Give the backbone structure.
Amino acid sequence: MGKILKYSFFDLMRSRWSYVYFIFYLALGFMLLFLNNDLSKAVITMMNVIIVLVPLIGTIFGIMYYYNSREFTELLLAQPIKRSNIFLGQYLGVAVSLSLSLVLGLGIPFVLYGLFQSNAIWDFSLLLITGAFLTFIFTALAFNIALSNENKIKGFGYAVLLWLFMAVIFDGLFLLTLVMFEQYPLDKFSLIATMFNPIDLSRILILLKLDISALLGYTGAVFKQFFGTNLGLFTSLGVLVLWTVLPVWRLVWVSKKKDF
Amino acid sequence: MISIHSLYKSFGQNKVLNALDVTIQEGGIFAILGPNGSGKTTLIKSILGMVIPDSGEISINDVSVRESWKYRQKINYMPQIAQFPGNLRVNELIRMIKDLRQKPAVEAPLINKFNLEPFLDKKLSTLSGGTKQKVNILLAFMFDSPLLILDEPTTGLDPASLIILKEMIHRERQAGKTILVTSHIMQFVEEIADEIIYLLEGKIYFKGSIAELKLKTSQDNFEHAIAAISMNKEESWVKY
């Protein structure tokens, strides 16, 4: 697996897009710091961007890489390499290089600004950790979609739909249910519903760490009670791990049965 | 020795391999023939583990290939259409395959034979179809393995390279290797093959030497003999 990871990683590192992605984050980091002139505020703005953009990039990159490397995959399948290692290696190659672009692209401007001297360091680390998680989750989901769809256009369509659902539609439905069932106690429901969307989960996790939960309104109190504690933090990180492991597990399982 | 026992594979409604049984002894050149869509490539890919059969058993030297991958160490495979990652250079590809297989490889004489030196620094996406095919041949022949599987090796080759390819196949045969080859060019098959395995509708329809085939179909010409066995098939179909 290590070798496949190495080749996929260097393949991506050589492509222009990793650099575009890296430079984008670098520019974004510098710009936000310049505009906000404050680390904590920049972290909040950054969160709003990351929470939407990272899943989108992970999905699109994942699906494009899979379809583009079909020849490479077929070449590898005839070699004495375990099947699951081929797909895991390629997946990790994409996810690791994207995470690296994110962490370095955002890390450099913040460190230069004096992150280590400020108390925003934990918030910022959490931001990067959830960003990396989102990359791993959505790349895995994209690989799953690509593996189940021979047709590129269809696969691409499903992938974009997945992102749209997680980033936009899910919130809409969530809000709608909250409004419709206003009379009922919804704290438990909303807490559980959040777990079903890694984007929402990451957002709430960061918001509560940033102590701006007042923005969340009346359910915010329940959220604060849960996510604010260590138990909440570890539960939600656990759920994010689950969100990563399950698609990866399916990836291995499906790839074992697939014909090439 | 490759032994295949009641192999079934269908893609959707399309039954490609239908209770296929065959044993391929060690040593010699075996030509897998059959009309388009008769399951030649599917059979080859099943042996390689790229296609997962619905049921049936494939074993190489009495070891089942199912869920296994180490046996591929002993197989050199040349795919039908040379598809390579386009952003790699030829020498990078060679190095990568060598690294992945962890096996000694002799590529220099082959590069020389096919005059590939000027292309070593070129990206694979910029190569012509014939040159890609030469690279394809190079990758399959640079390792020393007891089993070679060549899927349509003649596609896109110029006459000079075709002669080199035939020489190479002969040399491998003399070294006692087993070579499975598919082709639609009967002249090529007649020249190299020791034994014919004729596939029709996912079954082995004929297995034997060219002489036996000619005798059975009472044809002097190999090409006509091949045409005749598919004709016979039509007749037996009617009897059913």
Q: What stands out?
A: Residues 2-208 of chain B form a domain with the Rossmann fold fold (CATH 3.40.50.300). The longest strand of chain B covers residues 14-24.
